[in-house]
């Protein structure tokens, strides 16, 4: 199994935290669940972190059977639709998104 994580590295604009969360749950999560070949979607909102740790207010983890399934998902139209929606979300966020791909241990 392959997990692709998107780490939202930065900060939500002050006073827009609830709006940010609502945008993710109402507009983005339904799209992420429609990704081709996705087995599982986990969306995590940060609650706390160690002193000095980077700020990741949102982490998305998508699980796929293998690298081929992930590659198929990354080429599908829904990915590009979700990227356009994410661009809207970023108007409430100072920072960037970086992705990491992991193989689950058995």
UniProtKB/TrEMBL annotation:
InterPro entries: Dimeric_a/b-barrel. SUPFAM superfamilies: Dimeric alpha+beta barrel. This is EthD domain-containing protein. The lineage of its organism: Bacteria, Pseudomonadati, Pseudomonadota, Alphaproteobacteria, Hyphomicrobiales.
């Amino acid at each position: 199994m392959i997990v692709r994580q998107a780490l939202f590295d930065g900060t939500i604009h002050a006073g827009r935290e609830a709006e940010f969360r609502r945008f993710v749950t109402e507009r983005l999560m339904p799209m992420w669940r429609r990704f081709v070949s996705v087995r599982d979607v986990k969306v995590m909102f940060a609650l706390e972190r160690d002193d000095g740790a980077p700020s990741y207010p949102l982490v998305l983890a998508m699980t796929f059977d293998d690298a081929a399934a992930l590659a198929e998902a990354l080429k599908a139209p829904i990915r590009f639709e979700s990227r356009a929606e994410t661009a809207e979300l970023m108007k409430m966020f100072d920072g960037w998104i970086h992705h990491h791909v992991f193989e689950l241990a058995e």
